[in-house]
Each structure stands twice: as C-alpha cells, then as structure tokens.
Amino acid sequence: MTTLAEAGAALAAESARYAGLGWMRGTSGNLSVVLDADPLRLAVTASGLDKAELTAADVVVVDRTGTAVPDQPRPDRAPSAEAGLHARIAEVSGAGAVVHVHALSPVLAAEYWPDGVELRDLEMLKGFGRAAHDDLVTVPVVPNGQDMRVLGDAFEAGYRADTPALLVARHGVYVWGADLTQARHRLECLEWLLRFTIERTRTR
Amino acid sequence: MTTLAEAGAALAAESARYAGLGWMRGTSGNLSVVLDADPLRLAVTASGLDKAELTAADVVVVDRTGTAVPDQPRPDRAPSAEAGLHARIAEVSGAGAVVHVHALSPVLAAEYWPDGVELRDLEMLKGFGRAAHDDLVTVPVVPNGQDMRVLGDAFEAGYRADTPALLVARHGVYVWGADLTQARHRLECLEWLLRFTIERTRTR
Amino acid sequence: MTTLAEAGAALAAESARYAGLGWMRGTSGNLSVVLDADPLRLAVTASGLDKAELTAADVVVVDRTGTAVPDQPRPDRAPSAEAGLHARIAEVSGAGAVVHVHALSPVLAAEYWPDGVELRDLEMLKGFGRAAHDDLVTVPVVPNGQDMRVLGDAFEAGYRADTPALLVARHGVYVWGADLTQARHRLECLEWLLRFTIERTRTR
Amino acid sequence: MTTLAEAGAALAAESARYAGLGWMRGTSGNLSVVLDADPLRLAVTASGLDKAELTAADVVVVDRTGTAVPDQPRPDRAPSAEAGLHARIAEVSGAGAVVHVHALSPVLAAEYWPDGVELRDLEMLKGFGRAAHDDLVTVPVVPNGQDMRVLGDAFEAGYRADTPALLVARHGVYVWGADLTQARHRLECLEWLLRFTIERTRTR
C-alpha cells in the first residue's frame, strides 16, 4: 500500500468495518498506516468524522510527532488528535498499521486490571500472535491523558515486541500489525479474549 | 437544513440509523430539527410509524407547544406526542436538533441513579462536549409523565447549558445539539458512557 | 391482506425481520395471519425452514385445529407444528396476526417469574397497548408442551383481552395483534420491557 | 453437493453467515463438507483468511488425517489446521458437514461445566435433534490442544451418536450434521441453549 489514495481507501473501508461493530461510536477511534519509514510518514484518519462515512480523501499525512505535513489532500481536514501516539507506536514497534478503537470490553478490562490484563491458555491468543498454551500474555494499561508524548512515553516504557496492544484506561485500545489486516485479526482476537475474561471472572 | 423536504429526509435517514441500533423498538422515540427560531417551528417525526421505515414526508411541523401547525405535507400524520418536549428543549437550549430514543442503558442508568447519573474521567465525555479529566458531568433524571409541560418544566429546572442530555425515568433519553449530526455524536458517546458505567459498577 | 400470496409475502418479510434480530435461530418460531374468520383459516409459515429465507410460497393454510387444509400452494410444505396454538389464539382473541419467536429475554423472564411476569410504570407499556402509569400488566406463563390443545387450554384459561402476549416456559413467546405490524410493535416493546426488567432486578 | 466448486461456494456463503454473527472473529473457525466417504475426502475452508471474505476457491481438499491432497484449486491455500479433527468427526459420526466456530457462549459454558454441559427440558433441544422433555443432553467438553489426533481421540472417547456437538475448552465448539444446513440449525440452537443456560444459572 504505497500511495496515499490507496491508503485512504483502505482506512475508510477498515473504519467502516469497525464502526459496524460499534467500536467507533460518536466519531471515536482512529486508524493509521505507514507510508514511509524514514522519515516516518503516516496516513491517519481525519478527526471528528463518523468513522462509518469516511471517504478515501478523509485522511491526513503526519510526521513522527503526529503533526500534519504540508500538501494535504484535504487541507481542511485535521488529523486525529491521537496521531502522535500512532506515530510513536509505529516507530517503536515497526508496525505498518495502528488501529485505535473504543470497544467496551478493552476499557472494562483496563478498569478491572489496571496493572495489566493477564491472558493465558486460550486458543484465540494464537490470533494475537502468541501461543495457546503456557504463554502468559500481559496487555499493558496506561493512564489516560491528552498529551500524546506522555502517553507515548508510557507506551514505550511497557512495550514488549511480543505484545502488539496497549490499553488506555477509561479510553480505549490500540492494536498494531504489519498491515491493517493483521492489526484487524489481532484486535478482533483481543476483544474476544477480553470479553471472555471479563465474563469468566464475574461472580456467578 | 432549511426546507421541510430536506429536514424530512434527514430525519428519516437518522431515524433509520438509530432503529438499526435497536434504540427505536416498537415505534418508540422521535427526532426533530428546528426550521425556524422565531416563531419556533420544528419538524418532528410523525407518530406511530416504524422509525426504520420513515419517508421524507413522514414529518410534522409543530410550534413551541408541540402542536401541529396548519398546512402539513401529510395532514394524516400526527406529530409525535412528545413534540412539546422537543420544542421546550430547543427553545431553552438553542439546539438545532433534538433526538429522543429508548436505548436500554440510559433507562437502566436512570433506574440506578434516580438523582442524576454522575460521569467523570472518561475519554468519551469529550464527544459529549465535556472534558476527559476532572470534569464532573451529572446527567439529570426526571420522572416520567404524559404531560409535556410538566416534563418540560422538570427539564428546565435542571437544565445546564453544558449538559446536553436528559434522562426520563422508566422511559428514555433526550440528547440535543446544533444539528442532527452533533446530537448523534453526543448520544452515541452518552450511551457508551452509560453502558460502561453500569457495567463498571456491577458487583463482580 | 386478503390473498394467500399477499399473506405469504408479508409473512416472509416479517420473518426475515425477526430472524435479523436473532429471534428465530435454528428455524425456530412461526408467524401467522388470519385469512378468514369463519370458518377460521390461517396462513402460517411452513415448518423447518430458515426464517430469514422464506419465500411467499413457504406458507400453509390451516384450519382452527392447525391442520393443513387441502389445496396448498406448496403441498410439500408442512405447517408449523404450533399452528394449532396460533389458531386458538386467533380464535379466542380475535387477532388478525399471531407471532411466535424464541427471543432470549422472554424465556429468561418466564424462568424467573413462572407465575407470570409483572410490569408496570414503564413508558414502553404504551406500545404494548397498556398505560405507562398505574397499570399492572401481568404476562401469563404456561408450561411447555407438545400438545397444542393442552397449550391452547392453558392459554385460554389465563387469557385477558388487555394482555396480548403469552410466555411458554423454556420455549418462547407469542404476541398478537390486529395485523403483523401491530403484533410487531407489541412484541418489540414486550421484548424491551422484559430485557429491562431482567436487568433491573439483577443484584448489583 | 458433489463438486468442489459447489462445496467451495457453499462453504464461503455459510462462513460469511457465521462471521456476520460474530462467531468467526480474527479468522477463527472453519467449516467442512464431505466430498467422498471412501476414501474420505473433505473440502475444508482455507486457513488464515477472514471468514466473511472467502471465495469459492478458498477451499482445500483433505484426506482422513486432515492433510491436503495433491491437485488443489488454490495450491497456495493451506487447509485449516483443524482439518484433522473435522475428518475424524466426519468419519466417526458419518456427518456430511462439520462446523467449527468460536462463539463466546459455548466457550464460557465449557469453562463453567468442564465435565460436560447438561441441558434438558428446553424446546430448542428439538432443533438439536433431541427431545424437548425428559431427555438429558450432555454436551462433552475436551481440553484444548494442538495435536488433532489427541483431540480426535478425546472426541471419539466421549462420542455419542445422539449428541452432534463437542466443546473444546478455552477454544470453541464443533457441531455437525448431514449437511451444512442441518449443522447450522443444530449450532444455532446449541448456541441459544448455552446462552440461556449461562444466564439462567447466574446469581441474581
């Protein structure tokens, strides 16, 4: 996916897909793909728009700080405010795509296990890039904040190459991968795993 | 959105969208947009019709009391019985659109916190027009009733310009904004916030 | 709706709608409309077919006992096994349409309140044909069984003209009305009311 | 359904249907149909692809061990890793189709009742091929594992011809039938039954 038009079309389609799952309610969430690694350039979904209704042009190119670069397809479109965290995640992890949504179970899980959510011995962990047996996965949780550099530092402090996800308390989840498809598979598995874990640990 | 035909089309589309979320079951709920501020004229969805199946003509123009004015596109269509409350909300708040749905989580929240639902330190509050940190939002709850003037008075008594929502106990929720899109974003965020809060406070 | 073809088309469309809500899983449930009152003739959905995939021809005409009459549009189609209860309900209540689905909340409600489910002071009761205030609605529950005459007798014993619904324990719900649309509105409201009541009474 | 093209088309359509229910998140799950009984040949969905997006060519022919045979329509497509268990189930039960999905309620049920999930006196059991009254159905649960021969042995040890389902702990569910349609009806009923049972036994 090298051209901006292609990236925009892929981001619009993928956003509509997550919006259909109810994970991007009220214009929340954002998706990005890496256009270039050096200097880092990401195409990120524009801010404030319904994620089910994006067009290929509703995308903004940002640099490693999340700042919009000159020459945008839609100069009137602002990048997602969280673009800086997308860029940090891409830079540190080497990911080709970063997905951020506000699904409910990740946010509840972060609430119940603020020191990190532990998962192990679950088949769906394979879709998350880990093993189904004897592999303790801890999904890190960081406090919410509006300064993407602070969030980025918290992310980096707890970053493990084998754990492609981050929970932001009272906010949402970030999942990344080589491309939007791998990020999707990982996010779908993680959301399932968190929903299962929340239910399993509920008093019956 | 100045013409009635445009308003009707927008209301029909928006209603279908909420109906798709299951928030307008059994013909419940109603949406309105302000056509004129002085004298106040609202276009409100007609009563008794499935909200997924409205056409642009299924709209009634009402005055500030919620009474249908002469010269309707569909004289056989009655305005929503709750049009009077839509008008009061629009008049007091200056909103351009008012949305009323029967989503389950708002009604459960009103049941659990009949003195008002408190929300704070949640990212999704930004979509509700408030801050994500250190901003206590209290969504007012009023008792249900069939007299729109009584409901309107209760609404007005608890009205705060920074809190664009009202919970009616055992009934549903009203959310408003400058237009249907802003009202949608706010309602989607509020519904998410209430679902999260109900789950978070459940004994585990 | 007088012709069988019209009835079949309406039943197919309505079934697909309920199937879309997940209320007719595994071919469960059935819908009927009255073609003639005397002698009683109902068009009922055929048995064993996915309710999302019915055609207008997948309908069987039955008499007041639920037995298929001669001259069917599809002689290979068997009537729903529950057609006899549809007929009894139509005969006793005077309804023009009877809807039977296996939504989860009605069955759970019957489990929790086997002597009848009490509802009152809820706005959605208006969509069920009752009042929103000071009107105690009791939805009757009967034990499950395979003999439609036994079920029909149990239905008739507890029948009240102002309560157009019946819960069959460990099975599903029947709701009726003047036509499929009224039955739909009532069923949607009842299902919402039962979901609310189950949640409201859960220990928190 | 004798040709591979027909099988592929049916598998693709059926997979999309389950994916729409959210039961195949993150490429999880797989479906198969028997092409020949002796020697056993199954057409099984290819591995690693989104189950909502399969084409008729995304299918692999496997033998009784689950190994891909020569001459595939898509040599680049690998069979589902679980094909060996599909083949064992088909061989032992005589089923014409085997469906494996990762719906949440079956996995939760296996968690709560690891010695087998008991169901009885429920109308939906009829859709599962059992009786609605006085018929104790026990859905077996086996521990998860990556060796399909071990899983197959565990399946075979607890196999009963009148119970066309298997729960794999921390993983998912297998349901089978004469064809994909019967497997679908049985799976939909089982998933409903497990959801009901989990809810019914929750402390209130």
TrEMBL record, chains A, B, C, D:
<keyword id="KW-0862">Zinc</keyword>
<comment type="pathway">
    <text>Amino-acid biosynthesis; L-methionine biosynthesis via salvage pathway; L-methionine from S-methyl-5-thio-alpha-D-ribose 1-phosphate: step 2/6.</text>
</comment>
<comment type="function">
    <text>Catalyzes the dehydration of methylthioribulose-1-phosphate (MTRu-1-P) into 2,3-diketo-5-methylthiopentyl-1-phosphate (DK-MTP-1-P).</text>
</comment>
<keyword id="KW-0028">Amino-acid biosynthesis</keyword>
<comment type="similarity">
    <text>Belongs to the aldolase class II family. MtnB subfamily.</text>
</comment>
<dbReference type="InterPro" id="IPR036409">
    <property type="entry name" value="Aldolase_II/adducin_N_sf"/>
</dbReference>
<dbReference type="InterPro" id="IPR017714">
    <property type="entry name" value="MethylthioRu-1-P_deHdtase_MtnB"/>
</dbReference>
<keyword id="KW-0486">Methionine biosynthesis</keyword>
<dbReference type="GO" id="GO:0046570">
    <property type="term" value="F:methylthioribulose 1-phosphate dehydratase activity"/>
</dbReference>
<feature type="binding site">
    <location>
        <position position="102"/>
    </location>
    <ligand>
        <name>Zn(2+)</name>
    </ligand>
</feature>
<dbReference type="GO" id="GO:0005737">
    <property type="term" value="C:cytoplasm"/>
</dbReference>
<dbReference type="Pfam" id="PF00596">
    <property type="entry name" value="Aldolase_II"/>
</dbReference>
<dbReference type="InterPro" id="IPR001303">
    <property type="entry name" value="Aldolase_II/adducin_N"/>
</dbReference>
<dbReference type="GO" id="GO:0008270">
    <property type="term" value="F:zinc ion binding"/>
</dbReference>
<keyword id="KW-0479">Metal-binding</keyword>
<protein>
    <recommendedName>
        <fullName>Methylthioribulose-1-phosphate dehydratase</fullName>
        <ecNumber>4.2.1.109</ecNumber>
    </recommendedName>
</protein>
<feature type="domain" description="Class II aldolase/adducin N-terminal">
    <location>
        <begin position="9"/>
        <end position="198"/>
    </location>
</feature>
<feature type="binding site">
    <location>
        <position position="100"/>
    </location>
    <ligand>
        <name>Zn(2+)</name>
    </ligand>
</feature>
<keyword id="KW-0456">Lyase</keyword>
<dbReference type="GO" id="GO:0019509">
    <property type="term" value="P:L-methionine salvage from methylthioadenosine"/>
</dbReference>
